[in-house]
Amino acid sequence: MNAVRESMLPVYRLGLAAWAGLTLLQLAWHGWLAPPTHLSPALVLAITVAPLLLPLTALRNVRRALLWVGILSLFYFCHGISEAWSSADTRVLALIEIGLTLLLIGSLGAGVRRRAARGGTAS
Q1: How far apart are the first and last CA of the chain?
Q2: Which end of the chain is more exposed for a tag (fewer CB within 10 A), N or C?
Q3: Which residues contact residue 101 at a Cβ distance below 8 angstroms, ignoring those fewer than 6 apart?
């Protein structure tokens, strides 16, 4: 485990922090700050948080876990754009969601680029 931590690029740590932030944002947004009025909060939390927890199964390989979260974060990016556009009440939360997804995708791309520059494989 120490060898994995020593070889982890700082951009991957930034990606992990963005992943955790996105998960905590979903919990706070749909569970406390702006709970849904027409659906069960438990159902909305299951729909929004459960997909972010699935890549935990691949956490031994940080790049693979971040790749899966990066793919999933496209949904959260679209959700943030639609909420920021249509709902003034949750616009700040939506902008935070957009920022976290961009940070996550950007850190994944920067990590792949740095790894390729160091002579490693991009896969």
Answers
A1: 21
A2: N
A3: 18, 22, 73, 74, 76, 77, 80
d(CA 16, CA 112) in angstroms, rounded, equals: 15
pLDDT in tens, 36-90: 999 999 999 999 999 999 999 998 998 889 999 999 999 999 999 999 999 999 9
The residue with tokens 């699935």 is: 54
Read off the amino acid at residue 45: L
pLDDT at 121: 56
SS3 123: coil
pTM (2 d.p.) = 0.85
Helix (H, G, I), strand (E, B), or coil: what is residue 33?
Answer: helix
In the chain, alpha helices (H):
2-7, 10-28, 41-53, 62-86, 91-117
